[in-house]
């Protein structure tokens, strides 16, 4: 069975398994007189999220990279809207241009230049106050712009760059499916068994039980994905799964502390049951460069 068939089979089994688990959870939560509507809304939203990403991933490099580019721009827009950076047209233009330039490097598959893009982005961001001859609030705006263009541009672009390498489809699928299954598993284990808060000051709903449940599930899943990633050794599977689980949780917490600092619930409303794009992709944007460079360290993919 080729990679494409294995990917489609895996998606089908995970969605079917998740639906079965949600049915069981629905019965349990109904007995406890708890609402299950949001849980199902989140599940059915995946049928809107998966096709625009999965189909280009399998069939077209340029379209897939363009999709990630668009997600990156929209994610940055959500960030700029909540932190107020959109009010400064110079920094807004710089950030959109910086993200676009980063993805242009991805489209032309120039890995050396891709690696040093953060240097140029930081330098040009710090030159903006000088060219404007201004200094008031420039430290804050420069730092917000640097975070925005690197985190939501360069970090996201690692997913797109993986499509340029041999076995890129398998690497990307491994990264995305483990990240999202980690989120879903942590949610389920937290709902069913969660008693001890992980970091209540930052994310009140996260629990130690949910975190450990997600970690164990993705480690197991990494071995079940052997037909898609046969080149990974057992030790590397465990390392990748642990990095994705821990890194994904950290990515979620990073966005959580930003939201709590700004006193907002979600970054947007574009995805039913999830919120904004950043609320859905907060984990994968954080873990993408970690996974990319770890795979490159072990397998020399670029």
How would you sum up this structure, described in words?
The structure is a single chain. With 302 residues, the chain is an all-alpha fold. The protein has 10 helices and 2 strands. A two-stranded antiparallel sheet has the order 1-2. A hairpin with a 3-residue loop joins β1 and β2 (203-207). The longest helix has 29 residues, at 3-31.
Strand and helix layout:
Blueprint: H1 3-31, H2 37-59, H3 61-83, H4 89-107, H5 111-132, H6 138-162, H7 168-193, E1 197-199, E2 203-207, H8 208-224, H9 234-262, H10 277-299
Antiparallel strand pairs: 1-2
Helix pairs in contact: 1-2, 1-7, 2-3, 3-4, 3-6, 4-5, 4-6, 5-6, 6-10, 7-8, 7-9, 7-10, 8-9, 9-10
On the 0-100 scale, what is the average pLDDT?
Answer: 92
- Our estimate of the beta-strand percent is under 5%
Radius of gyration: 20 Å
Helical content (DSSP H or I, runs of 4+): over 70%
Tell me, what's the shape? globular
Pattern of helices and strands: HHHHHHHEEHHH
Give the beta-strand count: 2
């Amino acid at each position: 069975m080729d990679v494409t068939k294995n990917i489609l089979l895996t998606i089908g089994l995970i969605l079917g398994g998740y639906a079965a688990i949600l049915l069981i959870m629905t019965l349990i939560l109904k007995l406890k007189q708890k609402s299950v509507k949001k849980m199902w809304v989140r599940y059915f939203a995946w049928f809107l999220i998966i096709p625009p990403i999965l189909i280009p991933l399998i069939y077209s490099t340029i379209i897939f990279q363009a999709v990630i580019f668009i997600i990156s721009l929209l994610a940055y827009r959500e960030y700029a809207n909540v932190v107020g950076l959109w009010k400064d047209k110079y920094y807004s233009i710089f950030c959109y241009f910086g993200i676009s330039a980063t993805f242009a490097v991805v489209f032309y598959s120039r890995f050396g230049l891709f690696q040093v893009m953060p240097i140029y982005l930081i330098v040009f961001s710090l030159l903006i106050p000088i060219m404007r001859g201004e200094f008031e609030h420039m430290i804050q705006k420069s730092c917000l712009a640097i975070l925005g263009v690197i985190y939501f541009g360069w970090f996201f672009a690692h997913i797109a760059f993986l499509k340029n390498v041999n076995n890129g489809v398998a690497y990307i699928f491994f990264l995305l499916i483990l990240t999202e299954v980690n989120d879903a598993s942590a949610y389920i284990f937290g709902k069913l068994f969660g008693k001890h808060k992980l970091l209540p000051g930052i994310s009140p709903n996260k629990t130690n039980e949910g975190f450990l449940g997600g970690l164990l599930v993705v480690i197991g899943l990494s071995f079940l994905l052997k037909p898609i990633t046969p080149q990974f050794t057992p030790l590397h599977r465990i390392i990748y799964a642990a990095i994705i689980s821990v890194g994904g949780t950290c990515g979620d917490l990073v966005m959580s502390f930003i939201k709590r600092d700004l006193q907002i619930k979600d970054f947007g409303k574009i995805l039913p049951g999830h919120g904004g794009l950043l609320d859905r992709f907060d984990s994968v944007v954080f873990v993408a460069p970690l996974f990319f460079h770890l795979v490159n360290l072990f397998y020399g993919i670029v």
